[in-house]
Amino acid sequence: HDAAATVLPDGRIVRYLADPPEGIADGSEEMWHFRHAHLQTRVADLRFALDCLHKMNQGDMTGSFVASPPPLLKGKLCLDRVGALGHSFGAATAVMAAIEDPRVKACCGLDAWFFPMARPLPTLRRPLLLINSERWQWPVNLKRIRTLCRTHAGGPRVCHQFTLQGSSH
Length: 169
Prior knowledge:
Helix content is 32%, strand content 18%. With 169 residues, it is an alpha/beta fold.
């Protein structure tokens, strides 16, 4: 869980569990497995949120965390044009959600941290915009970004990236 506290549907409160166990080295295979599993949890959370929005749009919140959705949302959400946006680990989450869930039609990442992404990188079939900070990116991460853009199913015209000069993470 990434939040300081998460309230589960049964009322239990779960505390932040996103820190790696003691002794796992940054960049190690063990760290990749830990962070990749963490990424999959984040993507599942995003997909759950989309499921809830779809139910809200239909006026049905059975099995969700919202007891009764505001009726003003019923039929008002445009869910055929969903985009995902994230920063750092959230950018990897947005990109993986766009890869795995066809409801996500486009994604944008600010300082995308691609270390936890699947290996090899899967093919992205959605428009992607990546905005990098000048003082945060490093060669291995930039190589993974270039690989994702190069293998993008839509080609380079739908995968764009640029760096903001003078910026940091």
